[in-house]
Amino acid sequence: MRNPWLAMEPGADPVERTRTVRRAHEAFLAGGTVAPPVRQVVAASWRRSAEARAATDGAAPVELDDAALRDHRDGHPLARAMPVFRELLGSIAQDGAHLMAVCDAQGRLLWVEGHTGVRRSAERMNFVVGARWDERHAGTNAPGTALAADHAVQIFTAEHYNRRVQRWTCAAAPLHDLRTGRLLGAVDITGGDHLASPHSLALVQATARAAEAHLATYTGELGVFLTALGRDEALLTVDGKRLRLGRRHSEIMVLLAQRPEGLTGDQLSLLLYGERDIRPVTLRAEVSRLRKAVGPLLHARPYRLARPVETDLAVVEEELAAGRLTAALETYRGPLLPVSEAPGVRRLRCALEDRMRRALLGARNPDQLRQWTQTPWGEGDLEIWEALVDALPEHSPARAAPGATADRLRAAYGLAHGPPGTC
């Protein structure tokens, strides 16, 4: 069976593949439909890029200037893994006429190293440190798509969403904190058609695993961690092993993690189903299936977790309580289980979002406010856009763009002022 994350099967003609995918790309931009030979992972990325209104021509935006880049890079966990990246990929990038890049979880390039001539060429599309290469800002590309799909991937020439990037081929793998399962960023190699081979994808995957193992030496005991912010399906990390949970099981784990003393069947049913008339056997069946997945971690009578389970929800709450708003913004990867309709989850989701927004509105820091508006959950937040305008100097030309967005949102909402929030 063909590996869907590889750009081309052995023996494929790269020239013909480029030609047919480019035609498919133009057809997608014109009519929104995707036809073979476009891979599913690429088609899904094109749709996400189009929904985010990513540019089809142009350069990726540079978000971090020299001072901000230096501070962010020095404090980032991946700085400790740079010796591993350079040992495994550095000399290959230099000798092989391609680049090695490392980005954070937002897709901002923190390090770009390798062949000098290739670097100069890549600069023309802003493949430079400080630039943002997530799908929302740069369209389909290996580091951005690896972050979005949370999987190693190759992107070949015309598979890139942005035409300016379609002469390049790249392979990237996501990087995680093994203790928490938290996505830290991605490692990427970018160059010519020669990278469209199974070897380049295997190389970045092996490098990512080596870097994660190296970083684990700094984190101590692994423990149990539940990642549920910005995810429809939570990620449970138990002693370094990751398990993706189904949606209902994600809800149960979030609710039990918030109540370490445990919940009775009636209490858990109310938090999951509300006032709906649900037979007790329905909940018992769900819990039984969850127990098969997580084993002795889940106990009954009352339903409770046998080990302390840290959650990214609790981490954000702790960071907000300590006044570390920048850290909270980095940890907050989106609303808690955003598609969940479980009443208990909805209350937790709204409470955390409200705390985040109140902290942002209270701090009135333009960079933090702007960071919120550049997310899918914050781009329509009129009150934050208005606060961003007010936080900028009165006669600054930087007020024009957020002011125009605020005006557009007010017109769309039919309001004179911003709504209190989205929950």
TrEMBL record:
Which ranges carry the OmpR/PhoB-type domain?
240-305
| InterPro entries reported for this sequence | GAF, GAF-like_dom_sf, OmpR/PhoB-type_DNA-bd
What keywords are annotated for this sequence in UniProt?
DNA-binding
Q: Where are the transmembrane segments?
A: none
The answer to keyword DNA-binding applying to this record is yes
Note the Pfam families from the entry: GAF
Q: Does the keyword DNA-binding apply?
A: yes
- The name of this protein is GAF domain-containing protein
Q: What is the protein's species of origin? A: Streptomyces halobius
